[in-house]
Write a structure and sequence with these properties.
binds heme C, Cytochrome Bc1 Complex, Chain D, domain 2
Length: 317
């Protein structure tokens, strides 16, 4: 009996010691590094059409995180990341060679947007990666970054360096990893097929599923439909003041989802941030004014086709 107790004590002590060592390791170990990638050369022609389309996409996909106080994409503090992960600042991505991305090549930008890796192998873990955006979509965004649009003209602003807290470091060591570079071209969706188009917009381009499924931690970035609670809502997010807010259930369930939405009501909600009862949609749900009605209808059609999930999401937490 006594011996058994002693063994238990040893085992328990051992586990504690290991846990302590692991915690110390995570706290003090350097961020994981990656080999400098071999970046395939691509040539992107910056046509006026691409620049305009890139500006439109970026207004919904990049500006929110990168717009600094000078109204350029000069970087800022990301207020809605829970502080337990750390304090994060986006980068200056204006055309300034010293402070922005003036020295990056188009190929490097393309590689970075796909994988999160810079040319030196450093990994921008907090920046989302865009594995499912079409090549054409990324070419448009890159053309916009190179254009004479006022938002991307050189800015000397230098955002502070991001600081990872313990939980952030834990994610960095074990969870956040660069995405694989696609081994095949990523085609544009077929806009004549409304469901395929809507799915591309909702899952591939604007990642609606990411906020609108059960949790960021159980989302599948490469096969969004495999995300837990796909479009069932309830993901715990933060509003501007750091208060909890839950994402809405967008599945066609009549009672807890948007089953009773008409197409017109959906346009009003998605483009102008207003529910059918007139209540405003709160941050981080943003009005997507730059979407065309045809795009919104395609997203609506796609959301109508996903399996309904009965999940009552608290409206006012
Ligand atoms: C959720 C917020 C967020 C969104 C959305 C976002 N970014 Fe970022 N971006 C960041 C953060 C944070 C960094 C800095 C990452 C780091 O240093 O670890 C960054 C870094 C970058 C860099 C690297 C700059 C450098 O000098 O290292 C580029 C290029 C970039 N972003 C472009 C874009 C583009 C283009 C889009 C839209 C398609 C976009 N970002 C959307 C947060 C975001
Ligand atoms: C950054 C996270 C985030 C992203 C990305 C996002 N949403 Fe939302 N969405 C929310 C939150 C949070 C709410 C709930 C807002 C509230 O309760 O005021 C919401 C609410 C909604 C509603 C209102 C539903 C209702 O309750 O009546 C619709 C419709 C909607 N989102 C559609 C979309 C679509 C379509 C996309 C992609 C184009 C999208 N959202 C992307 C966070 C997000």
């Amino acid at each position: 009996m006594k011996k058994a107790l002693k063994i238990t004590a040893y085992v328990f002590g051992g586990i504690l010691l290991l846990a302590g060592l692991a915690a110390a390791y995570i706290q003090f170990a350097p961020a994981p590094t990656y080999d400098a990638p071999e970046i395939p050369e691509i040539t992107i022609v910056h046509t006026p059409e691409r620049i305009a389309e890139g500006a439109r996409i970026a207004s919904m996909l990049c500006n929110e995180c990168h717009t600094g106080q000078d109204d350029k994409l000069s970087g800022k503090k990301l207020e809605d990341v829970p502080p337990v992960f750390g304090q994060f600042y986006s980068a200056n991505i204006t055309q300034s060679p010293e402070h922005g991305i003036g020295k990056w090549t188009d190929s490097e930008l393309y590689y970075f947007l796909r994988t999160g890796l810079r040319r030196d192998g450093s990994f921008a873990a907090i920046m989302p990666q865009f594995p499912m955006v079409s090549d054409e979509g990324l070419y448009a965004i890159i053309s916009y970054l190179r254009s004479d649009n006022p938002r991307v003209q050189p800015s000397a602003h230098e955002p502070l360096k991001s600081k990872y807290a313990f939980l952030g470091k834990l994610l960095l060591q074990f969870v956040l990893k660069p995405a694989a570079f696609p081994d095949q071209p990523v085609p544009q969706p077929d806009t004549l097929n409304q469901l395929a188009w809507g799915r591309y917009l909702a899952d591939g381009l604007y990642s609606c599923y990411d906020c609108h499924s059960a949790s960021f931690t159980s989302n599948s970035r490469l096969v969004p439909e495999q995300s837990k609670g796909y479009y069932g809502g309830g993901n715990e997010l933060l509003d501007m003041d750091g208060n909890t807010i839950y994402s809405a259930n967008l599945t066609p369930d009549d009672e807890t989802g948007i089953g009773k939405y008409t197409e017109q009501a959906f346009i009003q909600a998605l483009k102008y941030g207003q529910r059918p009862d007139g209540s405003p949609l709160r941050y981080p749900m943003r009005p997507h004014t730059a979407l065309s009605d045809e795009e919104v209808k395609a997203i609506f059609a796609y959301l109508r086709s996903v399996p309904p999930i009965q999940n009552e999401v608290p409206k006012k937490p």
